[in-house]
Structures are given as C-alpha cells and as structure tokens.
Amino acid sequence: MGDARTHVRRRRLVPWAVVGLWLAALVLVGPLAGKFSEVQQNRAVDYLPDSADSTQVARIQDELPGGESTDLVLVYHRDGGLSAADRQTAAAQVAEVEGAYDLTDTPRGIPSADGSTLMYPVSSTEPGQDEEARNAFVDGVRGIADGTGGLGVEVGGPGALGTDMGKVFETIDGTLLLATLGVVTVLLVLIYRSPFLWLVPLAVAGVAAALAMAAGYGMHELFDVTITGQSGGIMTVLVLGAGTDYALLLVSRYREELRRHERPYDAMRAALRGCGPAILASSGTVAAGLLCLLAADLNSSSGMGPVGMVGVLAALVAMTTLLPAILVLLGRRVFWPLIPAFGSAPKARRSLFAAMGTSAARRPAAVLAGGAALLGALALGTLNLSGDLKQEDSFTDRPESITAMETLAEEYPERSSSPLTVMAPTDRADAVLRKARSTEGVADATAGRSGAGWTEISVFATAAPETAGETRTIEALRDGLDDHGAHVGGLSAQQLDLADSESRDRKVIVPLVLAAVFVILVVLLRSLVAPLLLLAAVVAVWGAALGIGGLVFEPLLGFTGTDPGLGLLSFVFLVALGVDYGIFLMHRMREESLNGAEPEAAALTALRTTGGVIASAGVVLAATFAVLTTLPLVPLVELGFVIAVGVLLDTFLVRTYLVTTASVLLRRRMWWPGGLSRAPEAVPRERQPEPV
C-alpha cells in the first residue's frame, strides 16, 4: 500500500519538478540568449581559415596606423555624359565627405573614357573594426552623396558591400524565427487536428531555441567559436525542425500508449521507452555529422559544427524532458477533440503507407531498380550547376553597393573597381611595388599606409572582379611576390581562398561524416548491411537534390552561380537528417523482427506504423528549411532549396519504396552479421491483403 502511495506521489511530483527546473533554467539562460546575435561575425574574412593569404592581409591591416580601413567608391553617372554642373556637384559632395570624416587621403576623381561616369575612391580608418561605426560611416557618406536632376549617385566599394551584407544578416534571425514558427504552427494544426495540442511542442521548441542561443553564446565566449549569421540562422531552423520531428514521434507513440495505460504518467513512460532509443540515435547522428565540421579549414564551417550541434541537443533535451512533463500534466484533454480513451481502439481507416508498402512488395526488384534509376537521372542535373557564385550575385534584391559595382564594371572595362591589397615588408616595399606593376594583368599599383613593419599596396587589375582574368592576376601576384614575403588579399582574393578551402573541406569532411554516421548505425541496428543501405540511400538523395537544384537555380530562378559551400553543407545536413527517418523505420523493423515477424511482414508493418509520423516529420523539416528560400541571400536560398527537396525525396520515395523494397529483397541478410540474420526463416505464406 505504501509503495502504491509513493508511486502516486511520484507521478504527481515528477512532472512539476521538471517544469520547475526548466523555468529556473530559462531565468538563467534568457539574458545569454539575447546576446547571441551580438557575437555574430559576418565579415568575409571571418569565414576564411587562419592560414589563408587574404586572412593574413586583413590581420596586418588591423595593425597599420588607424587599423582596418573602410574603402568606398562614390560613383557619379549620367547617360549621355556628365555636365560641368554634375562635376561641380560631385566635387562639392566629396569635399563635404572629406570635411565630415577623417580620410586617409584626399579623394581624386577618375573619369570614364566616354565621360559619362566619375568615380571617387574614398577610404577612412576612423570606424576601425567597430561594425556600428563602419555602418554609420557608410550611411553618412550615402546621406551626403545625393543626385538631383537625373544625376545618378551610388556608393559602392568593399565597405559599402560589407554594410549591405551586414544589414541583411541583422534581419535574418528575427525574420527566420517568425517565418519558421508560422510554418510549423500551420503544419502542426493540420497534423494534430486539435486547437490546443500544437501549442505544446511549439512552446517547447521556443524554449529549446533560447537554450541553444545561450549555449552558442557561451561557446563563443569560452572557446572563441566563430558564429556567423548563416550558422545562427541554420541553428534556428535545426532547433525548430528537428525538435518538432522528435515531438511528432513522441506524441504519436504517447497517443498509442494512452489507449493501453489508464494514467498519462505510465503512458508517457512507455512511450519514452519505446521511441526514446530512436530519438536518441537520431539526434546522435545529426550531432556527430555536424561535429565533423570541426575538421573544416573554413572558419564559418568549423563554427557551424558546434553551433548546429548545440541546437540539436537542445531540441533533444527539451523534447524528452519538458514536453513529456507538460503533456502528462495536461492529461488526455490536450488531444481534444480526438481524445484517446483508455481501452479504446484507434479508428479503423485505410493506411496510405500500408497500401504503398503492399504495392511495392508485389514487385520489389522492379520498384527498387526504377527508383534508383530515377535518382540517378535527377543527379545528372548537377552537370547544369553554374560556377562559383560571385559576391555581386549573392543578393536576390540588389543593394546599392552591387549596382555601383555593375556601373563601374561597365564604364571602366580597362580597370578593376575593386583593388587587390598587397601587404609587403616595408624594407622590400619598393621592390614589391615594381614587381606588382610589371605583373601581367595589372593596370596600376600604388603604395599606401606603412606601420608595424608592413606597407599597404593597392593593386588594380585590368580584368573585372571575380573573373577568370582577375584570378590569373591574383595567382601571378602570389607566385611572383612569394619570395618577397608579401601577401595578396582583398575581396576577390578572399573569394578565391574561400573556394579553395571549400574544395579541401569536401575531401576531408565527407568521409568523416559517412564514417561517424555508419558507426552509430552499426551500434544501433547491430548490423553492417542495414547501415550501408541507409547511407547509400541518403547519398543518392543528396545527388538527386543537387541535380534538381541544377535544373532550377539558373533556368528558373536566374541565379548565375552556386555557392562554393553548397555541396558540403547540403551533404552534411541531408546525410545526418536523412538517416533520422531511416532510423525510425529500421528501429521499428528490427523490433518487429525480434518479436518473430517474417522479414517481409516486419518491413511492411514498420512502414505502416511509422510511415505517417515519418511523413509528417519530413514535411515539417522540409518546410522549415524551405523558409530559407524567402531570405534575400542566394547562398541561403540554394541551401534551403536543396535540403528541403532532399528531405521530401527521402521521405516519400526512398524510405517508402526503396528502403522497404530493399529490405524485402534482402530478407534476414539485412541484419548480417547480427543474430537476426541467423534466425531461421519462416515458411513463406501466401501474401494477404494488408489490414486496415
């Protein structure tokens, strides 16, 4: 009797204790979560590896008198030619800029060959590295530079580009969070068909997001982890997408157990025992895959690994502790109007996934071959992917800095509007300057500031920024100046170093991710064949999703390039997240086999029982990543599109048909060399129609 009373008290107290602990944790982490956006670094150099030549240039610039410079170009343009009044207006406005700010040199106008354009390079060290001061400087110059009477005035250059990029990232966190919450809300209402139930996982996901932001801020402060606007935005998507997936799996199992247990506490314990291992393994594969990014040479990628990992782990902890506690406290009424009564049976209805599984099992070899051929054909679309994305093409809505760059490229074809920056040891500066001027592809080179043993040299290429001609010039400069101890940087050099680092990281991280996920799957499934099948499936999905991107990005969306990091990041996310659904399916398949079901029956039962929740989870996850396509940055649009398409392919084609038919064909060999592979085969029975 005493034990019974103790059990009742525990059922009442444990959920309240869990909720109380989470409320206390929120009070502690709330202020830290608010600081997450403050530590985001979005300069191009923040994405680059420490060893890159352009990174060395940026660091040396910080040591020169005045520190880092903010370089702008004021562009005055009138179709048909500038008038004398236009030139006077330009000179007066530039003089006003010089009077308002401490410039490194007096700006001098450079006219275009046809007289329609006049550009004034402007540089100042006054803002330094402070992002707010730099933005204020750019905005102030834009406020002074104003065209009237048909005179076009644009402020461009590296400093203006950085400000425009930073303003986009400033809006990402809030916009992305609200849009994702809206999408998840609509989908949860449709999935649960309840006016109340959807609020619970959504509120818990919000708590998990706050915890993840606080942890991300802590990692930056303690371990100097690089956090960018991109990694912060993706972390938000991961928390809400993965967290909602875990909630769907748990709530589905909890609803099932409420029909078998009278008390919600006991039903939740049974639900956690049943789906807990799958959720744990699922989050483990994602966390392990993301941690492999620590091996990346690129700062932005290596920082995204731990940032994404804390997002997934925060979602895991919240959905397996806070969500169960709240659901138990609310009781069965949270499911209203479809309340699962104790001892009742679920409403009989035809299962779409049972029908799909039965149709696939009739001719498994043909279905498997057809699906594999379809994925292969879609993967051919990767041949249509464009080259590396240029910075000027990185915005869906072109800001002023980009239109200024386009004007300069058109009006000054003989001279790049974005200088390369060479840092030379001061005692060799003259020799470096002569060598730079004599390098093929260089239009001009001028010496600038000196300090801390270094001299800054601005080099103007004859080719336009980020073209093959300018790339050859950068490589020629680096080859020719290497013996002089000089470094070559600047925006174009940074983009070149970025692409080189991405290429190196793909070769290193892809095998690491595959190995890490394979080990986790082997431990969970006690097999070698099943993990290999799942990995082959997600790799095929990745190739097909990239191929669809190749058929959409340029032909339909008009994108003129592909972000260099698209291949690596989409691979990491699609492999890690795609294996999730394989784990849900295979774990249930293994459970059915352990209970004595024949291989084909185990596969079809697993599909019938998990197909609905996997489909719901896949739609939610795809929708959350699809939110990235609404942002004004092409790299995030491309990444969101590929992952969303890949998740849908994985959910409705690979898991439903290909993995199921492969399991039917392999039978117990699926579990080799585990004990299930050695279990005696039952005599095959005549296939009966699937129960409804």
Rounded to an integer in angstroms, the radius of gyration calculated over CA atoms is 30 Å
Instruction: Characterize the largest beta sheet: strand count, sense, and whether it forms a barrel.
Output: 4 strands, antiparallel
Q: Report the order of strands and helices.
A: HHHEHEEHEHHHHHHHHEHEEHEHHHHH
Tell me what portion of residues adopts beta-strand conformation. Answer: 5-15%
Contiguous low-pLDDT stretches (5 residues minimum) are 681-692
Number of strands: 8
The DSSP helix count reads 20
Q: Give me the side-by-side strand order of the main sheet.
A: 2-3-1-4
Fraction in helix: 55-70%
Q: Between the first and last Cα atoms, what is the distance in angstroms?
A: 43 Å
Question: Can you put this structure into words, describing what you see?
Answer:
By secondary structure, the protein is an alpha+beta fold. It is built from 20 helices and eight strands. The protein has helices at residues 2-34, 44-47, 53-63, 84-100, 131-144, 158-192, 199-223, 229-258, 264-291, 299-330, 352-362, 364-379, 400-411, 429-438, 468-481, 491-525, 529-552, 566-594, 599-626, 634-666, and strands at 70-77, 110-111, 117-124, 152-156, 420-425, 442-451, 454-461, 487-489. The strands form two sheets. Strands 2-3-1-4 form a four-stranded antiparallel sheet, sandwiched between helices. A four-stranded antiparallel sheet has the order 6-7-5-8, sandwiched between helices. The radius of gyration is 30 Å and the shape is elongated.
